[in-house]
Amino acid sequence: MTNYLDFEKPLAEIEGKAAELRAMARQNEEMDVEAEAAALDTKAADMLTQLYSDLTPWRKCQVARHADRPHCKDYIEALFTEYTPLAGDRNFADDHAVMGGLARLDGKPVVVIGHEKGNDTKSRIERNFGMARPEGYRKAIRLMDMAHRFGLPVVTLVDTPGAYPGKGAEERGQSEAIARSTQKCLQLGVPLVSVIIGEGGSGGAVAFATADRVAMLEHSVYSVISPEGCASILWKDAEKMREAAEALRLTAQELHQLGVCDRIIDEPLGGAHRHKAETIKSVGQAIQSMLAELDGKSPDKLTQMRRQKYLDLGKKGLAA
User: Fold this and answer.
1) DSSP 251
2) β-sheet bridge partners, residue 102
3) What is the pLDDT of residues 282-316, one digit of tens each?
4) Which CATH number fits the domain that encloses residue 129?
5) Is residue 1 in a domain?
């Protein structure tokens, strides 16, 4: 069953009517409704094209957060073989909001790390809705250290509203853990590629996405703060999130112009949540392409290029 977003309600009505007609025909074989249902299908397809042809930044936020979008676990299961999860930060605990381990991509060994939001109430609570605690970032650092030691490329899949802001997380050094993870990304002597598959929220995303190559799905978002948080700070009114989304320049298209994002991965019409397998395949192809671009470069060359990439970011932004 399709979960419709607010702006998709007219589409829901049309697709619902077509489904209702076909359900009635199945109960009464004498009814011939296919022509009418097909006309509704055509109307729905045209409306879907129209809705997604020019999404506002706020609507892109809604699509990026859609509960049915493929999550980190889906990508790992579909794209990687021999995945061996590694748990714990060897200091406090294992954070289920961050999953990662050793795997093979197209037969080649890699380390994969990502935020996992969960796909039902139980798993979302277990995964803390993709909001990592300090131990999650320290687990990621441990995995990146291992990748550096054994010369394995690192793939990160980013999908988080932001790092968890709870009291316990702050007591255990949340900001320090995020900073250390970001620092580790910059120091790695192996290729590091990142894909924003949904939300890239604040430092919680930067800690995984300070990479040689950063790709974003077409309807994903990446920003220093959520539109609601930004609106609460600037206007003392979270309902002004639409204006905040416009001002933040958080869409893949705007960030590609600014040089924050290196490539945009097209999503099927209607978003990744409507065609998961197709989206996952496109992400896999993009990851392999980005790793191929970095293949054969020495550790010193990689760290030098990565450092320069982030030092140069503001220059393109000012020019834009």
Assistant:
1) B
2) 84, 111
3) 999 999 999 999 999 999 999 999 999 999 887 75
4) 3.90.226.10
5) no
